[in-house]
Amino acid sequence: MKKKILVTGGAGFIGSHLCVRLLNEGNEVACLDNYFTGQKRNVINLIDNPYFELIRHDITMPYFIEVDEIYNLACPASPIHYQYNPIKTIKTSVLGAINMLGLAKRIKAKVLQASTSEVYGDPEIHPQPESYWGHVNPIGTRACYDEGKRCAESLFVNYHKQNNVRIKIIRIFNTYGPKMHPSDGRVVSNFIVQALKEEDITIYGDGKQTRSFQYIDDLIEGMIRLMNTGEDFIGPVNVGNPDELTMLKLAQKVIELTGTKSKIVYQPLPADDPMQRNPDITLAKKVLNWEPKINLEEGLIKTIEYFKSIV
Ligand code: NAD
Ligand code: UDP
Fold first, then answer.
1. Which of 24, 69, 84, 126 is most buried when burial is the number of CB atoms within 10 A of its CB?
2. Where residue 80 sits, what CATH number does that domain have?
3. Residue ID of nearest Cα to ligand 1 atom 1
């Protein structure tokens, strides 16, 4: 059945892929964005589609629209972007959540929150299950993002308990793919752009810190499956690829796949940079019948092709 769906942050990396998928499934999509880190270019191909609507709006201000479902993605996601104006980042997560939950309550829509593995902070439990409460520095440089997202989760759960709002919470782990912003400072885009320009590849710290990267298509599949789960399941649920590797290994992989002459250089590790991250996806496998399908090499090849077309 055709649904009317609001995607906040729809002109961003993940949001733009989600809009395409939802339209392809026959839905009507309203994409709301203030273009802080997103770009019209990400959704330009959708503008002529009569079932697609582009709305310039900031979710820290209330917004009214009649829809069946809301995917709340609006929030800068890369450390350099969310640290640019930390107070605004907190407002986007917290006021944005309040505004979208208030809207969902009024129009009786189902609302999904794009939460993050950052709620686990620099984790002491490895891999991270949803039951882990995290290890976050509340006054550190990443706190505006981590604590904003943690507060948003709390708001979602309480609107559900107090006002019966139908909610879903997804904890997204590092995701990469085409349409990432080339200068957002995230590691996959940085390494690929540096390799394609034959510039030095910048590893922060000794490169032994780990992350687990999932390809965008796998995430979108997990998100839609979560939205479609029964009323009794609200999450949070981890969606990520458990294939964990060090940043040094990632740099070597990018060098191998691009055939670049770039050299690796080492720069200081940013404050509070988590040393390890790996999702426990037992719950996603059980409830969503989901697991990632695209391995790192396959995903990197597609992402490198995209960056070749824009760099
Ligand atoms: P992105 O920066 O590409 O997209 C975020 C979008 O939100 C942008 O289009 C931006 O302009 C918009 N936005 C920011 N503040 C806004 C505001 N106040 N009002 C309206 N729009 C606003 O980032 P992304 O990687 O696509 O991330 C999307 C969501 O997924 C974010 O909520 C992020 O926290 C979450 N997430 C992403 C990752 C990842 O690896 N990419 C991991 C965990 C969680
Ligand atoms: N990183 C790096 N070089 C870069 C950019 C990032 O070594 O040019 C490191 C960063 O310090 C972190 C990891 O890569 O340890 C992932 O960084 P990213 O910003 O992509 O995501 P997050 O830290 O939010 O998981």
1. 69
2. 3.40.50.720
3. 12
